[in-house]
Amino acid sequence: MNTLDFLIIGAQKSATTALFKYLQSHHAVDMPADKEAPLFTDTVDEASLQTFMATHFSNSDASRIRGKATPQYMCDAAVPARIKAHNPDIKLIAVLREPIDRAWSQYRMNRRRETERRSFDTAMKALLAPQQLVRARAGKAPMHAQHYEPEGDYYLVWSEYGRILEGYLAHFAPQQLLVLFTQDIEHQPAETLDRVLVFLGLEPGFRPSGLGEVVHKGGDSQIISKRVKDAIRHLAPVCFIWSRVPEARKQALRYWFEQRNVRTSNQAVELEAATWHAVREHFAADNRRLEAITGVTPPWSADSPH
Q: How far apart are CA 121 and CA 5, in angstroms?
C-alpha cells in the first residue's frame, strides 16, 4: 500500500518549518513542496489518500522515505484516529515550544492576518474560562482555504501538549513518537537533527545548508496590507492567471508569500502579572501530564535541568 512513513505533527509556531526544510533537502527523504498540504485534517478514505500520494509523491523512489508536516495535526482531537486508520505504523515527530511563547506567537500571527483585535491579555483572560476551554478543545483547526479564518479561540488549548499527545499515545506506541523542543532546534540544531535522522532510520551526520538559521521570524504586521492584497487579488489579469494555477501550487504560493510578508520584531509578551500567573498555573498541570506520558521534562519546567 502507498503510504507515508512519518509525520511532523506540530505544534504550531514551534519551528516545524525549519525541521521540514532540513528533511526536505535530505537525499533519502521525499516531502511535498507545500509544507501544509492537507491530509488527515478532515475525513479521509483510501481513495483520497492514494490521490494525495499520487499528487505529491508521483516521482518518489521506493528507496526513499516519505513524510509531511502540518502543525494542525495537534489542533484537532479527531486526527490521531484518522492517521491510525490508514498508517498504523507511522512515525510521529512533535516539536514543542514554551506554551506561553507559542500562544503569543500565534496571537501575533493573527494580528498580522487582521483576524484578531483584542489585546493578548484580554484574550487570555477570556480563554481561561472553563466553558471556553471545553469548547476550544472540541474545536477543529481552521483550514484557511479561501482566506484567513480566526484562530483566537485556541491560544491556550493548542499549547496543552500533554493533553494533545496523550490523545496520540492512545492510538500509537510510545516508540512511534519523538518529542523535540523548539529551543533545541534553535540552539543545538545538529544534535537535534541527528536524533530525528536516527528516529527515521537514517544515518546521522547530514547537515543541510542553513542549519540553525531562523527560517521564519514572527511579527505582528504585514509589509503588504490585507487591503492592498485584496485590491490586487480582484484585478482581472490577476484573476485570470490565478484561475489557471493548480490548487496544490496555489497552496504552496500562499504559504511562500505569508512567510515573506512579515515585518519582524522582538516584541515582548504583553500580559499583566495576574494574568501571567493564571496562565502559568493553567499550564503547570499540563506540563506534569506531558512529563508523565513521555518521560521527558520540558525545558520550561521548574524541574528541568536546562
A: 41
